[in-house]
Amino acid sequence: MVKVIVDAMGGDYAPLEIVKGCVDAACDFDIEITLVGQEDKVKAELDKYQYDKNKIKIVHADEVIGGCDEPTSAIRNKKNSSLCVALSMLAEEKGDVCVSAGNTGALITGATLIVKRLKGVRRVALAPLMPSSSGAFILLDAGANVECTSAFLKQFAVMGSIYMEKVMNVTNPRVGLVNIGEEENKGTALAVETNAELKKLDLNYIGNIEAREIPQGGADVVVCDGFTGNVILKFMEGMGVVFYKMLKDVFYKNIISKLAALFVKSGIKSLKKTMDYTEYGGAPILGASKPVIKAHGNSNAKAFYHAVKQAVMLVENGVIDEIKKNIEKFEVK
Amino acid sequence: MVKVIVDAMGGDYAPLEIVKGCVDAACDFDIEITLVGQEDKVKAELDKYQYDKNKIKIVHADEVIGGCDEPTSAIRNKKNSSLCVALSMLAEEKGDVCVSAGNTGALITGATLIVKRLKGVRRVALAPLMPSSSGAFILLDAGANVECTSAFLKQFAVMGSIYMEKVMNVTNPRVGLVNIGEEENKGTALAVETNAELKKLDLNYIGNIEAREIPQGGADVVVCDGFTGNVILKFMEGMGVVFYKMLKDVFYKNIISKLAALFVKSGIKSLKKTMDYTEYGGAPILGASKPVIKAHGNSNAKAFYHAVKQAVMLVENGVIDEIKKNIEKFEVK
Q1: In chain A, how many domains are there?
Q2: Would you say B117 and B288 are in contact if contact means Cβ atoms under 8 Å apart?
Q3: Is the pLDDT reported for residue A182 higher than 90?
Q4: Which pLDDT belongs to residue A332?
Q5: Number of helical (H) and strand (E) elements in chain A, helices listed first
Q6: What is the pLDDT of residue B271?
Q7: Is the omega angle on the peptide bond into residue A276 within 30 degrees of 0, that is, cis?
Q8: Between the CA of residue B286 and those of A15, B92, B173, B290, what are the distances in Å?
Q9: Residues A285, A104: contact at Cβ < 8 Å?
Q10: Which of A31, A35, A123, B100 could bridge B10 with an S-S bond, Cβ 3.0-4.6 Å?
């Protein structure tokens, strides 16, 4: 039975949607959930539902880290926040995995300072699953490290590859390095060096990939520095918003187009779902010594349910142990 | 009468589509076009059309720079290529503006080495116009300089602002710096420094913008290093391809959806056109001492026609002189 520690106060719709998502997850999976947060508020939400009392409990935490709090000072100064208490419980092995929809920077900082990195891991990476026309890919780093070295990027490639293999069941995942051309001499000094280094690793490294190939499923593991990754993540989000707005305008134009909309409603809905990265659960913070999942800040109950499900898979498939073994192996080389 | 020098051998469909686009442009505008390239091939194309012989002439150039040629060595070693001859003619003032759909890197290198930069300009920038849901924005740098300093980025902001004002008639263009958050302390050391520097300039600088705001028209002038800009340009292209493929699948699903497609055909077509950046003419190479336009490599006659039209506007609106004045003004500060 996997023990999931949840930051019940993190996210735009906390604790309401977080608690609801957890009740649903506890109903469907063989798990035990600890909701960490302001007890009165969490209890008030929890009391709305029928649930197995053995599967959900509350641990009180006074403070809350807000979305605008500066990450490092929040982790240092708000020791009694739901996010810090949840991560501390994970560090003390009072649970197997921690999930939070709260402040991304604080969760990444906390994963490093409270949970700590795996031995040999230089930096943790924020690694969201993203949609492509041929399935899903993992993007890392999506913003944990704005400045990277090739040593960081090499480890991101290894960690992402393991995640896609173990959790997403992709055999021999194709690893690509984001660059502005496919040739070896292309890009920044960092890109040229990293491309050369990645070739030496025992990975299915397919070389530099240009950004136009990313949404077309050009690689299963997309490696880049956190600045570039964050730009890709947010640009995709913005493009999605624009496409659907424009598509809506096409269908709302006149009575004929409105009729057409009825005929393809379900198809358009499923297209939207396919390209919406919030549908793909949360983003693991890879490289931490224990599993930490960042759920989307705007998670509703369903999205948080999926993040909890993903957390369970991360634990059951032994991703952290696998990363540990491989980082050690590659360090020896 | 604007004198346009055209690299007739550059681009995927050269000289066929290039010549056709030029014939159409010569018909519609009060211009004189010089087609530079292998005379027999260019003449064979030209002979297919009726045109005013006073408005189009051919200048022979033996060699051709291919799409895969390494830019610097191509410029150094293929002096008799259509691209080099065209740029040399511009440098010698045998024309007012040069347009090429050829090798992007070679054109940028040639703009620097043959045409030369404006006095005070540190680097030229590739500056494509890109579509957003509320119009168009200029993105610079889109790939001329993979590594940048804040001094380069400041000049890109000034040049992009002038282009949007003079050519696109945007009053007081909003300039934004691509970053991973809006706060001042966000991003790389370069982003933090550039954000502080841009505030000091006499521009309508709106601060850091996140990538999700870019396709939503968050700024008229989007400033970033050439690595990030190239990723944005190509990612947008890839997203477009994926989106239309998926939309097609929705409409081709069954007889009902095919019927629906008929009802919204024109709307979808215009949506596609709005979001297709190749519809927006070419990309000026800003910072060169004379106007140079990079047309899309896959330009057909229509796209090249638009690039020529853009070239004429660049000349008629005195963009280069305006940039010259402003770079000097800002250098004094």
Answers
A1: 2
A2: yes
A3: no
A4: 42
A5: 11, 12
A6: 80
A7: no
A8: 52, 19, 17, 9
A9: no
A10: B100
Q: Which of B254, B278, B302 is the last residue of a domain?
A: B278
Check whether A331 has a pLDDT greater than 70: no
When pLDDT is cut at 50, 70 and 90, the band that residue A333 belongs to is very low
Query: What's the CA gap between B60 and A107, in Å, rounded?
Result: 64
Q: Which residue of A has its CA nearest to B186?
A: A146
Alpha carbon separation from B217 to A99, A227, A275, B236, B330 (Å, rounded): 34, 21, 21, 14, 27
| A225, A315: one domain | no
Are A84 and A178 within one domain?
A: no
Mean pLDDT split into 10-residue runs, chain B, 333 residues: 97 96 96 98 96 96 94 96 98 98 96 96 95 91 95 96 93 97 90 96 96 95 97 93 85 82 81 74 94 94 94 94 86 50
Yes or no: say if B96 and B3 are a contact pair by the CB < 8 Å rule.
yes
Q: Do A180 and B243 touch (CB under 8 A)?
A: no
Please give, rounded to a whole number of angstroms, the shortest distance from the CA of B71 to a CA of chain A: 12
Instruction: Find out whether A159 and A221 touch, Cβ atoms under 8 Å.
Output: no
Whose tokens are 């926040």? That residue is: A81
CB atoms within 10 A of CB A55: 18
- Residue A159 resides in a domain: yes
Cα distance between residue B53 and residue B56, in whole Å: 6
Q: Which residues of A touch B211 (CB under 8 A)?
A: 230-235, 238
Give residue for tokens 């215009």: B270
Domain-located, residue A306: yes
Of A42, A41, A39, A40, nearest in space to A22 by CA: A42
* Residues B138 and B188 placed together within one structural domain of the fold: yes
CA dihedral defined by A187, A191, A193, A195, rounded to 10 degrees?
-110
- Rounded to an integer, what distance in angstroms lies between the CA atom of residue B24 and that of residue B51? 9
- Residue A189 covered by a domain: yes
A179 burial type by CB count under 10 A (0-12 exposed, 13-18 middle, 19+ buried): buried
Point out the domain boundary residue: B278, B299, B315: B278
A275/B233 touch (CB, cutoff 8 Å), yes or no:
no
Domain limits for position A229: 125-277
Q: What is the mean pLDDT of residues A3-32?
A: 97
CB A71 within 8 A of CB A108: yes
Question: pTM of the prediction?
Answer: 0.93
Residue type, A33: I
Dihedral angle at the C-alpha atoms of A255, A258, A264, A267, nearest 10 degrees?
A: 170
Whether A21 and A110 share a structural domain: yes
Q: Determine the residue type at B231.
A: V
Cα(B31)–Cα(B216) distance, rounded to whole angstroms? Answer: 36
Residues A134 and A227 in one domain: yes
Question: What is the end-to-end Cα distance of chain A in Å, rounded?
Answer: 37
Measured distance CA(B20)–CA(B35) in Å, rounded: 11
- Write down the pLDDT at residue A266: 81
* B contacts of A216 (beta carbons < 8 Å): 238, 241-242
Mean per-residue pLDDT over chain A, rounded: 93
- State CA B62 to chain mean position distance: 26
Q: Does the beta-carbon distance from A216 to B241 stay under 8 Å?
A: yes
| Whether A252 and A308 share a structural domain | no
What distances in angstroms separate CA A63 from CA A44, A182, A201, one per listed residue?
Answer: 17, 49, 45
In sequence order, the 6+-apart residues with CB closer than 8 A to the CB of A6 are: A18, A22, A33, A34, A35, A36, A86, A98, A99, A100, A308
Q: In angstroms, what separates the C-alpha of B33 from chain A's closest C-alpha? A: 33
